[in-house]
Design brief:
This protein is α/β, with parallel strands linked by helices. The protein is 47% helix and 12% strand.
């Protein structure tokens, strides 16, 4: 043994020593990199130095499957080629002598012999002398097993360092927690009590919300430990940790927001710190998912034997999916289109409702209303559950549709699982915040966050050149920003006839009815127009609707509210001219919908819609936030021949921008990213 201690630093010398002294041996977890320096060349050398290769019980099933496939596909010629490549002396190049052995790699004592090898021989050395007779049983593990083992090892270490007799617990629930972490029923109360005394302040402190929640968790311990086995313990511990963190985060978020409203700065900092410390409790899970993913990715990259390349399997996370807005509508269209084309594309959101189109829905930890945008809610997602889901599904790419809490969870998933991360700049949030609140300072703060978020991405999609320029101007790396225009359903949105409204002209607006859309400018332009033959229809709803209805009560304006399906299509078909005064939209899918129905458009010179309109051919572009200019623009378009000519041209051009084409272009772009 002393000899091995001396020579173990030189693997080649150690293998020579083992062979010369006829010491049975095998290589353990050959695909696990302790220091992230393991390469395929190292693995190839291990194949030449060892005949027995372990299937490791603390690795994912994909890793052991790769090992089996690789060893089974070896040939003598292949091994001899590798020996020449790496200049290995006395290589083991007989593929018929390559076999597997299985081991649990259990450092916690919780999963003894969960993975094992059976050999019918009487001699213990038969595992090595006749490995062809062995049956390796490598029961696959998951990150939840590794994290559970880490918690258990930490607890056992604490228990050894603390005189448990000195700190006898008086709480049966704590004894159940000890049982959950050690798989042993404690004869005496647990030392964990002293640890939790410090955490929840059971002595000399007034109870707070966090303490109450932790006590509730402990009360569930008897139920959690009922019928406990080594197989169900890791998942039960995961559920307990995830639930405890989520419940406490919910309470602390409510507390922090209340303090924010009250302006209590120190309490705000205290609340944020408490939330952060709760997520620190989850660190063993982050370590476990990262460790498993690193090994799984290394196995994916191996090319010792021929293997099939992975196809794109993407996940798209979004804070909005069910709301009535352009982003949600696009995501739903993408969901349907992906299914239609048989693409492996999963959409994930967070809401207290059931799935609509097959998307994965996580129940939110907490939901917050946005006072200035009542149609939109902000959900705090269950982070651990989302990470666990994405690891199990083994997505190759991660897309965040929004930079909110769910989008942040997507970023964490991508970084933790080392997958390409891409996102889309759908909404001009800084400008929206300024319009909705009237606080100019908010724009700068929001850009600080967005600059950080979007620079984490491999690629940032934006639907228009105008907003690509804006992102770059505000500090997003130019090489990351790619223009990817939206499409429109040209089979659903179609023209009707050209002599739609006799002698009258119907103007149409479709979208959110709010001041950031500059509908006050449209209202003023309509008054300046002084035309009795002009009617305006405003489709949609929002916080500005009641006020606008009052202001325009003396004019020929209709407010039908939200319209869907064929009713929305008919609204476009009945229009002569589509007017969109917004200066904050990144694209404006409603412009494409109008063009598909052969309705020319008026847009402003700020924002993404100006990229869609060809001035003089499919509509006109007017200065933003200028009622007089908008009024003159409308007046110049009130000519039947001009409207028909522009409408036909708009329909002709939009046929090349169908949603099918746009979605396939997007998917092909995603396929261009390397699958690591």
């Amino acid at each position: 043994f002393q000899d091995l201690v001396v020579i173990r630093q030189d693997l080649y010398a150690m293998v020579r020593y083992l062979d010369e002294h006829r010491i049975a041996n095998a290589v353990a977890h050959p695909l696990y990199s302790v220091n992230n320096k393991l390469t395929q060349a190292h693995f190839e050398k291990l194949l030449l130095l060892f005949d027995l290769i372990e299937l490791n019980g603390f690795r994912s099933p994909e890793v052991n499957a790769t090992l089996r496939t690789t060893v089974a596909g070896l040939t003598r010629t292949m091994l001899e080629t590798l020996a020449d490549k790496h200049h290995i002396d006395n290589p083991k190049t007989d593929p018929l002598r390559k076999h597997h052995i299985a081991g649990s790699d259990d450092h916690s004592g919780l999963f003894v012999a969960r993975s094992h090898t059976v050999n019918p021989g009487d001699d213990p050395l038969a595992f090595f002398t006749h490995p062809e007779l062995s049956e390796p049983n490598a029961t696959p593990s998951e990150p939840t097993h590794l994290a559970y083992a880490i918690y258990s090892i930490l607890y056992q270490h604490i228990e050894k360092k603390v005189n448990i007799q000195q700190y006898l617990a008086r709480n049966e629930a704590l004894r159940h927690m000890s049982q959950l972490l050690t798989m042993k029923k404690p004869d005496s109360p647990s030392a964990l009590y002293r640890l939790l005394v410090k955490i929840v302040g059971l002595r000399r402190r007034r109870k707070n919300t966090t303490e109450i929640l932790l006590r509730k968790t402990l009360k569930r311990m008897p139920e959690i430990t009922r019928n406990l086995t080594a197989e169900n313990a890791p998942q039960r511990w995961f559920t307990m940790v995830s639930t405890t963190v989520d419940e406490n985060v919910r309470e602390l978020l409510d507390y922090t927001i209340d303090q924010l409203k009250a302006g209590n700065v120190f309490n705000i900092i205290n609340g944020i710190g408490s939330i952060s410390s709760l997520y620190v409790l989850s660190i063993p899970y982050y370590i476990a998912y990262k460790s498993f993913q690193d090994t799984r990715q290394f196995a994916e990259r191996l090319s010792v034997v021929e293997s099939h390349p992975r196809t794109l399997k993407a996940v798209h996370l979004s804070d909005t999916y069910y709301e009535i807005n352009g982003v949600a509508k696009s995501l739903q269209q993408m969901t349907v289109q992906a299914k239609k084309l048989g693409l492996d594309y999963t959409f994930v959101t967070c809401a207290d409702r059931k799935s609509l189109l097959g998307e994965k829905v996580f129940k939110p930890v907490q939901v917050y209303d946005l006072p200035e945008y009542p149609e939109m809610k902000l959900a705090c997602p269950p982070v651990l559950d989302i990470i666990d889901y994405c690891f199990r599904e083994d997505f190759t790419h991660v897309h965040a549709a929004t930079p909110g809490p769910v989008g942040l969870a997507g970023l964490l998933v991508a970084k933790l699982l080392d997958r390409p991360f891409y996102t889309t700049y759908h909404t001009a949030l800084p400008q929206y915040a300024t319009h909705l609140t009237g606080d100019q300072s908010l724009e700068g703060f929001i850009w600080i966050y967005l600059r950080w978020f979007y620079n984490q991405a491999d690629t940032v999609f934006t639907p228009s050149q105008a907003f690509r320029d804006e992102l770059i101007f505000n500090g997003i790396a130019p090489q990351k920003v790619v223009v990817m225009p939206h499409g429109v359903d040209t089979e659903r949105f179609t023209p009707r006839d050209w002599n739609r409204n006799g002698n009258n002209f119907n103007l149409l607006y479709v979208g959110r009815v709010s001041k950031e859309k500059n509908l006050d400018v449209l209202a003023e332009a309509l008054r300046l127009l002084h035309r009795q033959d002009v009617k305006l229809t405003i489709v949609g709803d929002g916080p500005y609707r009641s006020e606008l209805m009052t202001d325009l009560a003396d004019l020929n304006v209709e407010f039908p509210g939200y319209l869907e399906d064929q009713a929305l299509v008919q609204a476009y078909q009945n229009a002569d001219l589509f007017v969109f005064p917004s200066t904050t939209d990144t694209f404006g899918c409603v412009i494409l919908e109008a063009h598909a129905c052969a309705v020319p458009t008026i847009v402003t010179d700020e924002g993404g819609p100006r990229d869609i309109v060809i001035p003089g051919e499919t509509g006109i572009v007017v200065p933003g936030r200028d009622a007089a200019a908008l009024g003159r623009g409308i007046a110049s378009m009130l000519d039947r021949d001009r409207l028909m000519k522009m409408g036909l041209r708009a329909r002709e051009l939009v046929e090349a921008k169908s949603f099918d084409h746009a979605f396939l272009d997007f998917w092909k772009r995603c396929e261009g990213f390397p699958v690591q």
